[in-house]
Write a structure and sequence with these properties.
By secondary structure, this protein is mainly alpha-helical. It has one domain: ABC transporter involved in vitamin B12 uptake, BtuC, CATH 1.10.3470.10. It is built from eleven helices and no strands. Helix 2 crosses helix 3. The longest helix is centred in the C-terminal third of the chain and has 42 residues.
């Protein structure tokens, strides 16, 4: 037990910080119906980090972060511009294209980096097991600041997520607020993808929110469920990774998937009864 606490306290702490922030943003992602926007932004951030590595930066450094953030800024511009009035082409199509192109671009860049194969794996599954307390504290402070931004922008962002056409009719500038949302999401993703990897970032944004929305209609209930259930799943996944000697990020992802599957089965059985 002492060995688990010594090794896993910081990884569990950073995971809980990620759960809270990603849970709020994930509820907007699910309501907007742009489920893969987070993994697209995560991939853009990973591409930016790969570009920084090409010029000698290390993953987790300030240089890698700011290059990844610049790439994510451009991605936010692209994504906010794809919410068009042409209903024949859903926004998800553009999101999928952006994800595929930047995934391929990241692979092309990392083929020119020493140990590029290992770095691809690193950016996909992360290295959350080796996170340090300074990184935990810095991430918590950054997310706290971004949380204040989201607090003051909550009403227009929620209106756009729940009723974009109604917001447009009332004169709300969808493109402007979309850019704010995607920029905040991009800053969160740029920070977390270097620690948790693309797969865990996507999981934390989508899976807890899907589970919460299935059970609760109120925002408060959804957020409390995301934080509470997310905490339990993170601890269980981290414990399994320690006991079975598995990659921590991948173990947490699979535990979230298992939790969602169990919830869906229980709900189905309850309805049948």
């Amino acid at each position: 037990m002492s060995g688990f606490l010594e090794m896993m306290t910081a990884p569990v702490a950073i995971s809980l910080v990620l759960v809270a922030m990603h849970g709020y943003l994930g509820s907007h992602v699910v309501k907007r119906g742009v489920i893969f926007v987070d993994i697209a932004l995560a991939q853009i951030a990973a591409f930016g980090v790969a570009m920084a590595m090409l010029f000698g930066a290390e993953v987790g450094t300030d240089n890698a972060y700011f290059v990844g953030l610049t790439a994510t800024f451009l991605g936010a511009v692209l994504l906010s511009a794809t919410r068009g009035k042409n209903s024949r082409i859903p926004q998800e199509a553009y999101i999928g294209i952006i994800y595929v192109v930047f995934s391929a671009a990241m692979i092309l860049v990392l083929t020119s980096v020493p140990h590029g194969g290992e770095e691809i794996s690193h950016l996909l599954v992360g290295s959350i097991l080796w996170v340090t307390w300074p990184v935990v504290i810095k991430t918590a402070i950054l997310y706290g600041i971004l949380g204040l931004v989201l607090y003051f922008c909550h009403k227009p962002l929620l209106r756009i997520s729940e009723d974009p056409e109604g917001a447009r009719r009332d004169g709300v500038r969808l493109g402007r607020w979309d850019f704010v949302f995607y920029m905040v999401l991009g800053m969160v993703v740029t920070s977390s993808v270097q620690v948790a990897g693309v797969l865990l970032v996507f999981t934390l944004l989508v899976v807890p929110s899907v589970m919460a929305i299935r059970l609760f209609s109120s925002l408060k209930g959804q957020f409390l469920w995301v934080v509470g259930m997310g905490t339990v799943v993170v601890i269980v996944g981290s414990g399994l990774s320690y006991v079975l000697d598995l990659p921590t990020g991948a173990a947490i992802v699979c535990t979230f998937g298992l939790a969602l599957g169990v919830q869906v089965i229980i709900e189905a059985l309850t309805r049948n009864r």
